[in-house]
C-alpha cells in the first residue's frame, strides 16, 4: 500500500496551543447534588473496556506521530475503463475529481487532518481518505453543535422492577446477565469552552471525547462542507455519495468483533467485542439486551430502536400465551359444537345454490372440514381475547411512554428536539431567509410555514394517487379470485371443484403479497423525493414526515385486502336470481365457514409470509453481498500486494462490510406487525405467538447486522422513537373499532347468541336458521330448490330476523367501543407518561440550572470576569458561528488550530 499523506493536512496537531490554557471562568456551571464520592470519577470518561481494549487493532487512539482515525471516505477508480471513456463520461469524471479535491481542501480549511491511502492493482484503484480532528477542532465544534458532555459521574440508575422482585424473593434471574464494561452515567450539560476544566475528563485529550462524539462532530462537518456553490446544492457528503463522487463514508468500528484469543479477559474486550459476546449471539436470545452498551457504541437512536423492540417483544409474551390458550379452547370446542356436528352429519339435507354463474349445486356437508377449521377461531373466547388485546395495546403504549421518558432522561436527550437539534444542512442551504429561533435566541435559516403547507398539500395529492393505485390492484385481485373460482369449478376434477373458492383465495393472497412488495419499493423512492421538496427544518421533522407518507401507503398496501375480506366480502352479493356483479363478474361470497377463516388465512399468508421473506432476505442477501464485496476487494489486494503479510488495515476491513441503511425499514416492519396483531386479532388469536417467535429472531438478527455485517453508523441522538409512537397509538384506537365490527358482523358470535336467546336455549337447528330458501322463480328456472346463507324471506327481501340482528350488532359495536375506550381512558389517567422519579430529577436539574444562572449573573461583574487575553478570541468564535454560508462548515479560526488553512 502506498501512502500519499498530504503535508498540509496535519500541521494543526503538533505544537497547537490548547484553548483550555486560558484562565478558567470561575462562575459555577451547575451545583451538583451530593453523591457518593468516587476517586475514579474524575480524569477520564472512558470505561475500563474502552481504555484496556484492543485499541491497537484499529489504530484509533492515535499519537502525535500517528493520528487517530475518526472517519473514512472511499472512492474507487477503474483505470482501464477510464482509457475507454468517451468525452461525456470523461467530463463527468473530471468534474467529480474537481469536486472531490475542493471538498477535501475545504475539510482541511475546517481544521481536519486529511490523510490519503491508496490500494492499487493493474486495472483499478481504491482510495481511502482518513480523517481525524485535532483537539481544538473538537472543542470548537462541540460548542458549536451544543453537544452535552459529562460534569460528574452518577451511580448507575438502571432499574428493573421484575429483577428487583426476583432478587427480593431469592429467585435467580436467568434473563439478566452481568455484562462487563458498563458505561458510566453522568450529569451533563452543553459544552462551554470557557469552562473546560469543569467537565469530567478534560485533562485527557484522548478520552474526553468518546468515539461517538467524535463521529458526530466529523459527520456534522462533512454534512455541511461545500464543494461548489451552496445555493445549487453542491455541499455535503450525502450529495457526493449520491453523485458517485465517493463510494462510501463511515466511521471505523472499534476493532474486530471476534476476540483474538479464547481466554481473553472481559476487561480486555473492546466495546464491539462485548456487544458480540453478550448481545449479538444466537444463544443469548433469552437474555436482556445491554442497552447502555448499545447506546454508548451506536448512539441513542439505535439504542431506542432496540429498547422498543425488546420492550414490545416482552409484552408479546402474555398476549401470545392468552392467544394460544384461546386457540386451544377452540380446538376442544370443535368436536362438541352442536351446529358443526349438525352440518357434518347433514348428508344431502342441505343442497346449496351455485356459487358462480356456471358453478354446480353443492351439498353443505361437503364443507365440513372448512367449518371445523373456522370454529378454531370463531367462538366465545375470541370476544374476551379481543377486549384483552385492546387493553393490552393501551397498557403497552402507556408503559412504553414511561420507559422512553426514563431512557431519554438517563441518556440526556429529554430536550433534544426542542433545544439541541440543529437545522438540516440541506434545509439550511435551500432556505430563502433567516429568522430568530425563539427558544435558542439564535438567527437560523427559515422557510415560511405557508409555503411549506402548500408543498405538503401538493405532496398529499401524490399520496392519494398512489393509494388509488393500491385500490386498483385490490380490485384486480378481487376479480382474479372470482374468475379463478369460476374456472376451477368447471374442471372435471371433483376435488379441485370443491376447493375452488379456497384455492382462488389462497393464490389471490400470494399475488397480493407480490403486488405489495413491488409497490413498496416504488413508493419509498417517491416519498423521499416529496419529503425533501417539502423543506422540513430538522432531521427529526424530515423523518417524521417521510415516515407518515410511507406508512399511509403501506397501511393501505398491506391492510386493504384483509379489510376487504373482513368487512366487505359477501355483503353485497344479492340473492338467487338477483345477484350483484362487478364488471360483469358476480360478487364474491363467503364460504360455508364464513369469512373469518378466510381472513385468518389471509393474515397468516401476509404476516407470516412477509416475516419469512424478510428474515430470509436479512440472512442470505447480506451474506451474498458481503461475500461479493470481500471477494472483489481482496482479489485486488492479492494482485496489489502478493508478497505482503495477510494483515488488513481497519479501514479496509470496514469497507468490506455492508453500508448501514438506517432503521426505517426495521420500524416499519414492527409497526405493520403490531397492526396485524391488534387490528385483526379476533380472526387469528395465534398472531401474537407468530409475532413473538419472529421478534426473538429479529432482535438477534438486527444485532448481528449492526455488530458484524454492517459498517458502523454515525451515532445519532434522539429523544424518542418519533412519529412511530403516534402511529402505534392510532393503530391501537383503530384496533378497538376493527375488532368490534369483526365480532359483530363477521363472526357468528352474535347470531348464535340471538338464536340461543330466542329459541329453546341451545343451538340445535342453528344451521337451518342461518339458511334461506331460493325464490320460487329461481327454483322453477332450475327445476330444483336450493338454500343459501342469508336472513331473507322466500321472495328475497330481508327478514325481521335480519333487522333484529342488525340492531343487536350495532348496539354491540357501540357498547364494546365505549367500554374499551372508557377503560383505556381511565388507564391513561392513572398511569402518568413520565415516572414520578424522573419528574423529580428533571425539576431538580432545572432548579440547579436556574440557581447556576443566577450565580453567574451575580458574579459576572466581580471575580467572574474572563481573561481578556482570550475574550477577543471568544467573540471571534461567536461571530464565526453565524457568519458562514448556510450550507458551509464553520472554518476554525487560526488562533485555535495554530495554522492558517489554505483552500
Automatic annotation (TrEMBL):
Residues 294-845 form the Anoctamin transmembrane domain. Pfam families: Anoct_dimer, Anoctamin. GO terms for molecular function: chloride channel activity; phospholipid scramblase activity; protein dimerization activity. Residues 41-53 have a biased composition (Polar residues). One of its GO terms (cellular component) is plasma membrane. The chain crosses the membrane at residues 302-335, 379-397, 456-483, 503-526, 546-567, 674-697, 721-745, 802-821. The keyword 4Fe-4S does not apply. Signal peptide: none annotated. Residues 67-291 form the Anoctamin dimerisation domain. Its main location: membrane. It is a multi-pass membrane protein. Residues 41-64, 880-903 are annotated as: Disordered. Keywords: Cell membrane, Glycoprotein, Membrane, Transmembrane, Transmembrane helix. The keyword Cell membrane applies. It is found in: Cell membrane; Membrane. GO terms for biological process: calcium activated galactosylceramide scrambling; calcium activated phosphatidylcholine scrambling; calcium activated phosphatidylserine scrambling; establishment of localization in cell. Belongs to the anoctamin family. This is Anoctamin. It comes from Mustela putorius furo (European domestic ferret). The gene is ANO7.
Amino acid at each position: 500500500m502506498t501512502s500519499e499523506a498530504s503535508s498540509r493536512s496535519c500541521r494543526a496537531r503538533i505544537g497547537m496551543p490548547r484553548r483550555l490554557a486560558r484562565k478558567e471562568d470561575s462562575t459555577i456551571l451547575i451545583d451538583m447534588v451530593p453523591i457518593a464520592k468516587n476517586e475514579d470519577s474524575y480524569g477520564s470518561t472512558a470505561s475500563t473496556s474502552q481504555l484496556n481494549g484492543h485499541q491497537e487493532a484499529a489504530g484509533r487512539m492515535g499519537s502525535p506521530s500517528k493520528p487517530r482515525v475518526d472517519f473514512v471516505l472511499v472512492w474507487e477508480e477503474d483505470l482501464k475503463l477510464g482509457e475507454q471513456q468517451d468525452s461525456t463520461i470523461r467530463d463527468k469524471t473530471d468534474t467529480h475529481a474537481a469536486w472531490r479535491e475542493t471538498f477535501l481542501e475545504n475539510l482541511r480549511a475546517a481544521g481536519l487532518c486529511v490523510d490519503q491511502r491508496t490500494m492499487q492493482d493493474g486495472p483499478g484503484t481504491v482510495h481511502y481518505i482518513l480523517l481525524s480532528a485535532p483537539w481544538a477542532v473538537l472543542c470548537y465544534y462541540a460548542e458549536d453543535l451544543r453537544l452535552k458532555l459529562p460534569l460528574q459521574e452518577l451511580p448507575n440508575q438502571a432499574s428493573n422492577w421484575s429483577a428487583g422482585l426476583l432478587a427480593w424473593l431469592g429467585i435467580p434471574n436467568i434473563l439478566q446477565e452481568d455484562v462487563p464494561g458498563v458505561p458510566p452515567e453522568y450529569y451533563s450539560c452543553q459544552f462551554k469552552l470557557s469552562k473546560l476544566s469543569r467537565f469530567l475528563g478534560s485533562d485527557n485529550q484522548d478520552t474526553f471525547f468518546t468515539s461517538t462524539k467524535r463521529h458526530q462532530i466529523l459527520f456534522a462537518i462533512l454534512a455541511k462542507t461545500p464543494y461548489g456553490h451552496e445555493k445549487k446544492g453542491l455541499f455535503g457528503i450525502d450529495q457526493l455519495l449520491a453523485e458517485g463522487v465517493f463510494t462510501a463514508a463511515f466511521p471505523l468500528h472499534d476493532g474486530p468483533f471476534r476476540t483474538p484469543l479464547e481466554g481473553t479477559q472481559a476487561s480486555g474486550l473492546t466495546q464491539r467485542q462485548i456487544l458480540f459476546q453478550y448481545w449479538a449471539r444466537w444463544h443469548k436470545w433469552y437474555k436482556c439486551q445491554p442497552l447502555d452498551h448499545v447506546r454508548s457504541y451506536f448512539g441513542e437512536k439505535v439504542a431506542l430502536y432496540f429498547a422498543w423492540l425488546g420492550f414490545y417483544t416482552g409484552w408479546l409474551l402474555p398476549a401470545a400465551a392468552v392467544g394460544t390458550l384461546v386457540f386451544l379452547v377452540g380446538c376442544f370446542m370443535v368436536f362438541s359444537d352442536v351446529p358443526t356436528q349438525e352440518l357434518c352429519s347433514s348428508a344431502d339435507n342441505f343442497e346449496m345454490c351455485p356459487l358462480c354463474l356456471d358453478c354446480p349445486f353443492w351439498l353443505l356437508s361437503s364443507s365440513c372440514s372448512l367449518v371445523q377449521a373456522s370454529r378454531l377461531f370463531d367462538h366465545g373466547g375470541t370476544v374476551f381475547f379481543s377486549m384483552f388485546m385492546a387493553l393490552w395495546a393501551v397498557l403497552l403504549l402507556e408503559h412504553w411512554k414511561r420507559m422512553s421518558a426514563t431512557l431519554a432522561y438517563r441518556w440526556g436527550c429529554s430536550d433534544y428536539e426542542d433545544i439541541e437539534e440543529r437545522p438540516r444542512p440541506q434545509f439550511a442551504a435551500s432556505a430563502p431567509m433567516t429568522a430568530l429561533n425563539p427558544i435558542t435566541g439564535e438567527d437560523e435559516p427559515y422557510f415560511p410555514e405557508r409555503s411549506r403547507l402548500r408543498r405538503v398539500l401538493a405532496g398529499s395529492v401524490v399520496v392519494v394517487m398512489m393509494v388509488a393505485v393500491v385500490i386498483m390492484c385490490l380490485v384486480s385481485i378481487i376479480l382474479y379470485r372470482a374468475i379463478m373460482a369460476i374456472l376451477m369449478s368447471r374442471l372435471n376434477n371433483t376435488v379441485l371443484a370443491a376447493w375452488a373458492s379456497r384455492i382462488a383465495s389462497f393464490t389471490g393472497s400470494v399475488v397480493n403479497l407480490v403486488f405489495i412488495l413491488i409497490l413498496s419499493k416504488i413508493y419509498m423512492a417517491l416519498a423521499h423525493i416529496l419529503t425533501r421538496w417539502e423543506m422540513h427544518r430538522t432531521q427529526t421533522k424530515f423523518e417524521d414526515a417521510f415516515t407518515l407518507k410511507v406508512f399511509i401507503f403501506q397501511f393501505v398496501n398491506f391492510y386493504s385486502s384483509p379489510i376487504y375480506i373482513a368487512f366487505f366480502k359477501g355483503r353485497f352479493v344479492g340473492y338467487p336470481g338477483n345477484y350483484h356483479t362487478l364488471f360483469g363478474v358476480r360478487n364474491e361470497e363467503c364460504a360455508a365457514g364464513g369469512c373469518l377463516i378466510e381472513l385468518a388465512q389471509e393474515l397468516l399468508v401476509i404476516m407470516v409470509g412477509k416475516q419469512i421473506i424478510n428474515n430470509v432476505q436479512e440472512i442470505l442477501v447480506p451474506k451474498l453481498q458481503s461475500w461479493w464485496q470481500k471477494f472483489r476487494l481482496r482479489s485486488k489486494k492479492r494482485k496489489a500486494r502478493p508478497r505482503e503479510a495477510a494483515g488488513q488495515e481497519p479501514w479496509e476491513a470496514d469497507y468490506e462490510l455492508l453500508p448501514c441503511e438506517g432503521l426505517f425499514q426495521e420500524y416499519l416492519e414492527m409497526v405493520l406487525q403490531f397492526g396485524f396483531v391488534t387490528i385483526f386479532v379476533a380472526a387469528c388469536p395465534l398472531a401474537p405467538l407468530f409475532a413473538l417467535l419472529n421478534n426473538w429472531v429479529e432482535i438477534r438478527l438486527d444485532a448481528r447486522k449492526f455488530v458484524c455485517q454492517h459498517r458502523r453508523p454515525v451515532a445519532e441522538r434522539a429523544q424518542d422513537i418519533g412519529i412511530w409512537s403516534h402511529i402505534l397509538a392510532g393503530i391501537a384506537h383503530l384496533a378497538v373499532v376493527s375488532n368490534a365490527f369483526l365480532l359483530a358482523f363477521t363472526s357468528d358470535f352474535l347470531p348464535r347468541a340471538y338464536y340461543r336467546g330466542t329459541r329453546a336455549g341451545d343451538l340445535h337447528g342453528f344451521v337451518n336458521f342461518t339458511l334461506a330458501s331460493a325464490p320460487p322463480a329461481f327454483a322453477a328456472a332450475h327445476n330444483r330448490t336450493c338454500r343459501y346463507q342469508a336472513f331473507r324471506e322466500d321472495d328475497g327481501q330481508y327478514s325481521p330476523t335480519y333487522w333484529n340482528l342488525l340492531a343487536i350488532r350495532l348496539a354491540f359495536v357501540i357498547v364494546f367501543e365505549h367500554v374499551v375506550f372508557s377503560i383505556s381512558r381511565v388507564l391513561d389517567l392513572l398511569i402518568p407518561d413520565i415516572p414520578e422519579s424522573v419528574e423529580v430529577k428533571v425539576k431538580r436539574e432545572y432548579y440547579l440550572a436556574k440557581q447556576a444562572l443566577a450565580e453567574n449573573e451575580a458574579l459576572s461583574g466581580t471575580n467572574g470576569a474572563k481573561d481578556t487575553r482570550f475574550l477577543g478570541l471568544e467573540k471571534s468564535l461567536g461571530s464565526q458561528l453565524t457568519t458562514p454560508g448556510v450550507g458551509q462548515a464553520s472554518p476554525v479560526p487560526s488562533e485555535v488550530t495554530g495554522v492558517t488553512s489554505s483552500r
